[in-house]
Amino acid sequence: MICRLGSVILQLLTNSNQEGGQIMAVMTQENAQFLQACLEGLECFDAGGKFNDLGKQLVAYQLENWMSGKLGLAFKAVRRAAGAPFSAVECVPVDLATGVLLNFRDFTTNLDPDVAALGKGWHTSGSYQDTSVRGKEETMMQAVKRTALEELGLMVEPIRQICTLDHSVGHPRFSDNPTLFACRIIGGEPKNLIDHDNPKSGDNRWFQKCPPNMLPIQRDYEPYINGTIRTASLWLPKKTLEEQGGEL
């Protein structure tokens, strides 16, 4: 069942112009749940569960951005309004024999022109670590494990924190401060695994080093990922960050 905010927005879009059908296609249940969490955190509902004036203003702003195709901008604006941090984790799962598992993304058909401009390429699987949106106390290491399982089909243990990069003037779709974690694989099977050069979004592939067609916005990850692969025999046997007492 779609959440309350999602139902309201979908009803508004149904009564909108011919672009409504396109926008409904990208207004997923996950997006609706996220927006509801943000708006509830900002006290945008009255005692009866209806939008107050602030709620109506924010929803109107979201609709304006969706209808103009600026989905990433709408997404980031609500996160900032809700005080949600734009820090994120990036999972770098490494195997001594097969290298690093990367995920392919193709943004070229996205309705948001800013997102479409990201192009396509291989990238690390990542996620926001954000208790205000997910409604639970999730550490960065828990976020890494969840992301690996959801996107890659792998159970992992973070062994070392590789680096945190500054993308504070970067793209509205991506994190301001991504933190890369080198991970040991402890279970699962890679899903959508391929070994050819014609990937589609969601495919995963092993690499001995970062390929030339990395997603452009993640090309500054390459020296860190390649260094992590080269030194894997030194850090893979070590204790996990949790065993070391990490509370990231």
In words, what does this structure look like?
A hairpin with a 3-residue loop joins strand 1 and strand 2. The chain has helices at residues 4-14, 20-26, 29-41, 53-67, 71-81, 113-116, 131-134, 140-152, 222-230, 232-235; strands at 87-95, 99-106, 120-123, 125-128, 154-164, 177-188, 204-207. Helix 1 (4-14) crosses helix 3 and helix 4 (53-67) runs antiparallel to helix 5 (71-81). The protein contains 10 helices and 7 strands. It has 2 domains: 4-81, no CATH class; 87-235, Nucleoside Triphosphate Pyrophosphohydrolase (Alpha-Beta Complex), CATH 3.90.79. By secondary structure, the chain is of the alpha+beta class. Strands 1, 2, 3, 4, 5, 6 and 7 form a 7-stranded mixed β-sheet that branches. Helix content is 37%, strand content 21%.
The third-level CATH topology of the largest domain is Nucleoside Triphosphate Pyrophosphohydrolase
N/C terminus separation: 34 Å
Number of helices: 10
- The overall average pLDDT, rounded, is 74
Supply database-style keywords.
7 strands, 248 residues, 2 domains, 21% strand, Nucleoside Triphosphate Pyrophosphohydrolase, seven-stranded mixed beta sheet, globular
